[in-house]
C-alpha cells in the first residue's frame, strides 16, 4: 500500500495572549521589543478585562478554526494527509516556530494561509515573508495563499450575516439601515505603494451589497494604531458622528469583513467602544456575527489551500 502524500498547512494569524499575565510580553512584541508604558499596559489590560473578565476564550477561536480546517481538508481530499500548524505574528507559537515544527516533523511540502481574506504588504505580506524566510532556511518547499476576498463561499457567509443583521431592525426597511463594512486600518503610506488592501476590501463590500440588494452602505476603518503617523480613515467612530450630524440614518449595521473571529477588535472596539458612541448619538447599532468556524468560511480556506496543491 502506497503511503499517502503529507502536506503541512501553516495557518497564520495575529495572535493573542492566553492569559492576563501574558499581556505585557505580547504588547512588548507588538512594539518590537519596546515595553509599553505603565499607562499603555493598563489601558490594554482594561480592554481585555472588559471583554473576557480575565478568562481568555480568544485563542480558542483560532485553535478551533485550525482544527476545523484540518478536518475539512482531510475529509474533502482523503488521498492526501494534511497536517495543520499554527504560526502567530505576536504570540507563541510564532510563525517561525510553526515552520520549524513542520520541518522537524519531516514534512517536505507546505502551504501557508493567513486568517485574513485581504492582502496588504504590511499585513499578510509580512506573515508570508517571515514564513518564507524560515522555510527557505530549512529547505522546506512552501507556497502561499495571498488573498481570497471574493471566494463565493466567503461572500455567501457574509451575505447571510448581513441579512440576519438587517432582520434585527424590526419594522425598518433594509434600505433605511446604513450598513458599514469595516476592516483594520493600516498606515496611510500603503496608498503610495499601490497596495491592493483598500481595493480588495471594497470588492468584498460591493459583492455582499449586491447579493443582499442594498445601496445604503459605506466603508469605515477601525482599530488604528497609535504610532504618530496617519492611518487610513475615516474611523468608525467618526463615521457614526457624521451619520448623526448629517441625519443620514438612525439605524446602523456594522459588518467587520476584515476580521474572521471574535477578538479584541470586535469585542471591545465595536461591541463596547462603537456601541457606547452610538448610544450617545442616539443610534441603534447592531453588528454581524463573526465567521469563527462557520462551515462556509472553513470551506473557503480549504478551497484556497487545495487550489495550491493542484497547482503543484
Would you give an account of this structure?
- This protein has 312 residues and is of the alpha/beta class.
- It has 2 domains: 163 residues, Rossmann fold, CATH 3.40.50; 136 residues, Rossmann fold (3-Layer(aba) Sandwich), CATH 3.40.50.1400.
- 46% of the residues lie in helices and 16% in strands.
- The chain has a 4-stranded parallel beta sheet with strand order 2-1-3-4, sandwiched between helices. The chain has a 4-stranded parallel beta sheet with strand order 6-5-7-8, sandwiched between helices.
- The model has no long low-confidence stretch (mean pLDDT 95).
List the helices and strands and how they pair.
Layout: E1 5-13, H1 23-30, H2 38-52, H3 58-76, E2 80-88, H4 95-104, E3 109-114, H5 124-138, E4 141-144, H6 152-167, E5 177-184, H7 197-212, E6 217-222, H8 236-245, E7 251-255, H9 264-267, H10 269-281, E8 284-287, H11 295-311
Parallel strand pairs: 1-2, 1-3, 3-4, 5-6, 5-7, 7-8
Helix pairs in contact: 3-11, 4-5, 6-7, 6-11, 8-10
State the helicity in percent bands: 40-55%
- Overall, the morphology is globular
CATH topology of the largest domain: Rossmann fold
Helix count, DSSP H or I runs of 4 or more residues: 11
Which series of helices and strands comes N to C? Answer: EHHHEHEHEHEHEHEHHEH
Going across the biggest sheet, name each strand in turn: 2-1-3-4
CATH architecture group name of the largest domain: 3-Layer(aba) Sandwich
Q: What is the CA–CA distance across the termini? A: 23 Å
Radius of gyration: 20 Å
Number of DSSP strand runs: 8
Q: In what range is the share of β-strand residues?
A: 15-25%
Uncertain stretches:
none
**Total discrete domains:** 2
Structural class: alpha/beta
Described by strand count, sense and barrel closure, the largest sheet is:
4 strands, parallel
CATH class group of the largest domain:
Alpha Beta
Amino acid at each position: 500500500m502506497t503511503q499517502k502524500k503529507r502536506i503541512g498547512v501553516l495557518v497564520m494569524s495575529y495572535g493573542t495572549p492566553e492569559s492576563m499575565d501574558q499581556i505585557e510580553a505580547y504588547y512588548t512584541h507588538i512594539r518590537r521589543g519596546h515595553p509599553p508604558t505603565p499607562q499603555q499596559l493598563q489601558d490594554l489590560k482594561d480592554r481585555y478585562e472588559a471583554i473576557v473578565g480575565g478568562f481568555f476564550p480568544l485563542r480558542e477561536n483560532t485553535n478551533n478554526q485550525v482544527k476545523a480546517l484540518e478536518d475539512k481538508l482531510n475529509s474533502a481530499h482523503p488521498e492526501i494527509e494534511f497536517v495543520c500548524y499554527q504560526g502567530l505574528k505576536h504570540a507563541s507559537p510564532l510563525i517561525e516556530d510553526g515552520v520549524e515544527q513542520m520541518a522537524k516533523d519531516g514534512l517536505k511540502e507546505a502551504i501557508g494561509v493567513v486568517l485574513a481574506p485581504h492582502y496588504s504588504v504590511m499585513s499578510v505580506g509580512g506573515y508570508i515573508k517571515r514564513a518564507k524566510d524560515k522555510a527557505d532556511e530549512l529547505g522546506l518547499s512552501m507556497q502561499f495563499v495571498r488573498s481570497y476576498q471574493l471566494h463565493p463561499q466567503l461572500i455567501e457567509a457574509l451575505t447571510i450575516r448581513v441579512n440576519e443583521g438587517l432582520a434585527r431592525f424590526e419594522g425598518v426597511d433594509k434600505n433605511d439601515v446604513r450598513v458599514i463594512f469595516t476592516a483594520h486600518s493600516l498606515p496611510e503610506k500603503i496608498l503610495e505603494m499601490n497596495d491592493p488592501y483598500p481595493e480588495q476590501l471594497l470588492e468584498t463590500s460591493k459583492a455582499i451589497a449586491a447579493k443582499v440588494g442594498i445601496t445604503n452602505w459605506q466603508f469605515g476603518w477601525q482599530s488604528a494604531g497609535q504610532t504618530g503617523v496617519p492611518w487610513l480613515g475615516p474611523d468608525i467612530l467618526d463615521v457614526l458622528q457624521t451619520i448623526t450630524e448629517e441625519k443620514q440614518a438612525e439605524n446602523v449595521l456594522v459588518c467587520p469583513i476584515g476580521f474572521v473571529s471574535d477578538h479584541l477588535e470586535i469585542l471591545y472596539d465595536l461591541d463596547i467602544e462603537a456601541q457606547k458612541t452610538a448610544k450617545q448619538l442616539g443610534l441603534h447599532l447592531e453588528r454581524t456575527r463573526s465567521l469563527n468556524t462557520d462551515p462556509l468560511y472553513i470551506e473557503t480556506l480549504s478551497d484556497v489551500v487545495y487550489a495550491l496543491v493542484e497547482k503543484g
